[in-house]
Amino acid sequence: MQDYNEFLEETLIPEKILQERIAELGKEISKDYNGKNIHLICILRGGVLFLADLMRQLTVPHTIDFMAISSYGLGARKTTGKVRITLDLKEDIHERDVLLVEDIVDSGYTIASVLELLTTRHPKSLRVCTLLDKVERREIEVPIHYRGFKIPDKFVFGYGLDIDEYYRNLPFIGAIKPELYNPED
Ligand code: IMP
Ligand code: MG
To answer: Between these two residues, 88 and 73, which has the higher pLDDT value?
Structure first.
């Protein structure tokens, strides 16, 4: 496997900044959900590192569950707006305070479809927490209640996000060299 430095154009968000912001988010969420139990839903696989760090910053009781989806689009960032569940939640979310934990919102289609789907299961509340937001690329409006960082329109990797399934372990968010990134892949 190639060294990640071969792909790295620049470090967009260093580890320390990332962790400080996650601590802030944890505080904010804990304050907003004071007296409640949060049911955190993580969309696999990109959101796992964020979930693990975020939940350690929460001071309110919470449970976790996972779901995986695949978009009907082509490649990493081509989405058609429709998603298919490849792994469904273990638990019922009826009457629960659900917080979706996502790595990144790009066009918005993924979150929009997941929200539409989860709404049909009648949670008590349903909110979205995303670490990264590529605001400029939004094609469909989605409610984002908690956001770590707005980022420019660049393909990013590290901290859960992959390049062909690798480098998810990196503790920072890096931008890939544009010449090495082919969105049609
Ligand atoms: P959306 O449906 O266009 O909002 O796309 C969201 C999904 O696309 C994310 O959950 C990621 O899996 C993927 N994605 C979008 N941008 C990036 C990126 O820069 N790096 C890695 N994955 C990305
Ligand atoms: Mg993802």
So the answer is: 88
The pTM of this model reads 0.94
Where are the alpha helices (H) located in the chain, listed in sequence order?
15-32, 48-55, 109-119
* Tokens of residue 9, six digits: 């154009």
CATH match for 14-156 among 1.10.10.10, 3.30.70.270, 3.40.50.2020, 3.40.50.720: 3.40.50.2020
Q: What proportions of the chain, in percent to the nearest 5, are helix, strand and coil?
A: 25, 35, 40
**Catalytic machinery residues:** 106
Q: How far is the CA of 34 from the centre of ligand 1 (A)?
A: 31
pLDDT tens, residue by residue, 142-157: 999 999 999 999 999 9
Read off the pLDDT of residues 113-169 as tens digits, 9 standing for 90 and up.
999 999 999 999 999 999 999 999 999 999 999 999 999 999 999 999 999 999 999
Domain ranges of the chain: 14-156
Q: Which ligand 1 atom is the nearest neighbour of the CA of 105?
A: 4
**How crowded is residue 180: how many other Cβ atoms within 10 Å of its Cβ?**
13
Half-sphere exposure of residue 69, counting CA atoms within 13 Å on the CB side?
24
Q: How far is the CA of 148 from the centre of ligand 1 (A)?
A: 15
Please indicate whether residue 113, judged by its CB atom, sits closer than 6 Å to ligand 1.
Answer: no
